[in-house]
Amino acid sequence: MTNKQFLWGLSSGVFVLAIAGTFWFGLGVSSVLTSDTDWKLWCLSTIIQVGMLAGLIWFAYKLRRHSGFKSADFRNADEQLRSEARQIRAKFVWIVVGQTILIALGVWLFVSTNASDQIWPWIAFIVSVHFIPLARLFRVKAYYVTGITGSVLALVVFTGILKPYSQAYLGAGLAVVMWFSAVYIIRNADKITSAAIRKI
Fold first, then answer.
1. What was the pLDDT predicted at 160?
2. How is 142-156 classified by DSSP, letter by letter?
3. I need a surface site. Which of 34, 126, 167, 168 has the fewest CB within 10 A?
4. What is the CA radius of gyration of the chain?
5. Are 32 and 168 in contact (CB under 8 A)?
């Protein structure tokens, strides 16, 4: 794998983290803001949500351009690079499939046992945990922090000590984890790339 290709992959990670953070922020806000809430708070939350999403996507796009790599370059790569890309893609698919199955099983279990309030913490836990194998697969140590921090937060919410604002804390906390991870990657992209390439 080349530096350009790795940077291109990092930009994809930033895109995903930006969108994930936006989703969790929206989930948290929707649990505390109602139709009776002052419109100024709605505007503030919308500005934060849209502003972070737009800003991170813009920086992710800049990082992708900085990489100098294009998806079309995969077709022109030598067989070794294409084989490596196929292996990474296959492992990534298995991680996503495993994540999806675990989420589905958890949702089914909590619905069956009338414990629907545990669904979002469960989803948050599995989504966070899946960053740990991704950290190893993509050689991005920052994903370990993302996965561990998000998992710990989800487990704390599972205990119920944050009720009645569990969903608000969960959503806001995971949004911070995802967005901070994206910012860290953007600011340290070249350093992360150099460290990862040396290990190949």
1. 86
2. HHHHHHHHHHHHHHH
3. 34
4. 19
5. yes
Q: Are 151 and 173 in contact (CB under 8 A)?
A: no
Residue with tokens 């002052």: 38
CA angle 162, 167, 169 (to 5 degrees): 60
Average of pLDDT values for 89-109? 94
Our CA dihedral for 38, 41, 47, 52, rounded to 10 degrees, sits at -150
Higher pLDDT, 72 or 112: 112
Beta strands in the chain (DSSP E): none
Query: How large is the average pLDDT for residues 143-148?
Result: 96
CA pseudo-torsion sign 133, 138, 139, 145: negative
176 versus 67: which is more confidently predicted?
Answer: 176
Please report which confidence band the pLDDT of residue 174 belongs to, taking 50, 70 and 90 as the band edges: very high
Tokens of 124: 């948050």
